[in-house]
Write a structure and sequence with these properties.
The chain has helices at 2-26, 142-146, 175-184, 244-249, 286-291, 331-334, 364-371; strands at residues 42-46, 50-59, 67-73, 77-85, 91-92, 100-101, 105-120, 124-131, 154-161, 168-172, 188-196, 200-205, 214-219, 229-231, 252-259, 267-271, 275-282, 292-304, 315-321, 348-351, 357-362, 383-389, 397-401, 412-419. It is of the alpha+beta class. Strands 3, 4, 7, 8, 9, 10, 11, 12, 13, 14 and 15 form an 11-stranded antiparallel beta sheet that branches. Strands 1, 16, 18, 21, 23 and 24 form a 6-stranded antiparallel beta sheet that branches. It has a 5-stranded antiparallel beta sheet with strand order 2-17-22-19-20, with no helix packed on it. The radius of gyration is 29 Å and the shape is elongated. The two termini are 29 Å apart.
Length: 426
């Protein structure tokens, strides 16, 4: 009997709540459950809604990309890759024998596993491999590494036609170059460059995916039982034990040789290589959140076209809530302290960089959360971050007009609200 009463009571409460929601939308009467027979929904357009916005570059940090983008698009874009093999096997062990030092090798090659998602592959593509080991250069100097992508340092290449390009490919390497590294006990650091008969881009799997590049070479011996040696990537520097995570990041990583898209004033950028994030801080009038109940909220952004890439290229933009408190004054770092995707902001945008027009992000749940934020000490500023998904893996960037743009183009927010009331039976 108690269970039945509980079920009936639950159904009654649900029905009553539904009646109240109906009242908000249509003004229908439910005097026994709601404080009035009609609730007027008020709409307002907040313009400007942002107190501040900016674009920050460099996401994710070097070597933290889930995959490695290789791309070339004429004078506009070129992204290369680096894979480090800092610990090489210099001996082999024949069956039933002791270790022998390697004095010669053949069949040297590097294995790469490709991800074709979002790839642009022309009629033919060429993978070039360079020796980018230079013990005098800084580990993190992009300029120093790029100077080593020159003809005298090229140690391997191979061309594939589009229809014959495999998902796992082997690029042959100079046997003498590999043997020199083994003999001198030096690092083997490979620079990867993609070119083609037209614009080309694709991704190579990395350590983070579990399918990293592999270096293979076979000791020259008359013993047919000796197989090719396979070496996985690793980085021996920085030497200091204080920075193991940096060694991990430098095992394989992207390196941007060129990124020359046109720059516009009064704009926010999302995506690109390296990744760009837009930081938006809001100014919601106190009277809306303090004495009213928000029932709908939508942020309107005006996209401005970026004439780059193909007209069919699309990218996903996600909105995240900032978690950085007021003590975090470095907003580039603050743009990294964010919620997971879909928390309080369920919308994501599918945009074509060449398009223009108004894009809408629903923010109702977030504004309701901000209503209760005023009771928190050192609450995070009211801000969101826009980022591409995936980040730094597609050579696509979207632009939106910023808060400094003229009226009619800058971000605005449409909010629907009702005066705050106490629900319940009088």
């Amino acid at each position: 009997m108690k269970r039945r009463l509980f079920v009936l009571l639950a159904l009654f409460v649900v029905a009553g709540a539904g009646a109240c929601r109906e009242s908000l939308d249509s003004g229908g009467a439910c005097p026994s459950l709601c404080p009035s027979q009609s609730v007027t929904i008020r709409d307002t357009l907040i313009d400007p809604v942002l107190v501040f916005d900016s674009t920050y570059v460099g996401y994710p940090s070097r070597g933290q990309e889930l995959e490695m983008l290789l791309a070339t698009r004429g004078d506009t874009l070129e992204v290369r890759g680096v894979v480090r093999f800092d610990s090489l096997t210099t001996f082999y062990v024949p069956a039933g024998d002791t270790a022998h030092t390697i004095v010669n090798v053949d069949s040297s090659r590097v294995r790469l596993v490709l991800d074709r998602t979002g790839a642009h592959i022309p009629a033919a593509v060429t993978f070039e491999v360079y020796d980018v080991d230079d013990t005098t250069a800084s580990d993190t100097s992009t300029a120093a590494v790029l100077t080593l992508f020159r003809a005298s340092q090229r140690i391997g290449s191979k061309t594939w036609l589009k229809d014959s390009l495999p998902d796992t490919l082997f690029v042959p390497l100079s046997d003498s170059a590999v043997l020199d590294k083994l003999t001198a006990k030096r690092h083997m650091r490979l620079g990867l460059r993609l070119s083609g008969t037209g614009s080309a881009s694709l991704r190579v799997l990395t350590v983070e995916t579990g399918f990293p590049a592999q270096l293979l070479y076979k000791p020259v011996t008359t013993d047919t039982s000796v197989k090719a040696i396979s070496v996985g990537p690793n980085s021996a520097t920085p030497v200091s034990a204080e920075f193991p995570e940096i060694r991990q990041d430098l095992t394989d990583y992207e390196i941007v040789a060129k990124y020359a898209l046109p720059q516009y004033a009064n704009s926010m950028s999302v995506g690109g290589v390296p990744g760009r994030r837009a930081y938006l801080r809001f100014n919601i009038p106190a009277y809306i959140l303090d004495s009213n109940t928000v029932v709908r909220a939508a942020l309107r952004l005006t996209q401005r076209p970026l004439p780059f890439g193909d007209a069919s290229d699309t990218m996903i933009i996600q909105a995240h809530v900032s978690l950085a408190g007021p003590q975090v004054t470095d907003l580039r770092r603050a743009a990294s302290l964010i919620t997971t995707s879909g928390l309080l902001i369920s919308d994501s945008l599918l945009v074509t960089p060449r398009d223009s027009g108004v894009r809408t992000i629903q923010m109702f749940a977030l504004l309701r959360a901000w209503e209760g934020q005023k009771v928190l000490v050192n609450a995070p500023p009211r801000a969101i971050i826009l980022r591409a998904s995936p980040e730094a893996l597609l050579p696509l960037e979207a632009r939106f007009f910023s808060s400094t743009a003229p009226a009619g183009l800058r971000p605005v927010m449409q909010i629907s609200y009702v005066p705050r009331v106490s629900f319940g039976v009088p």
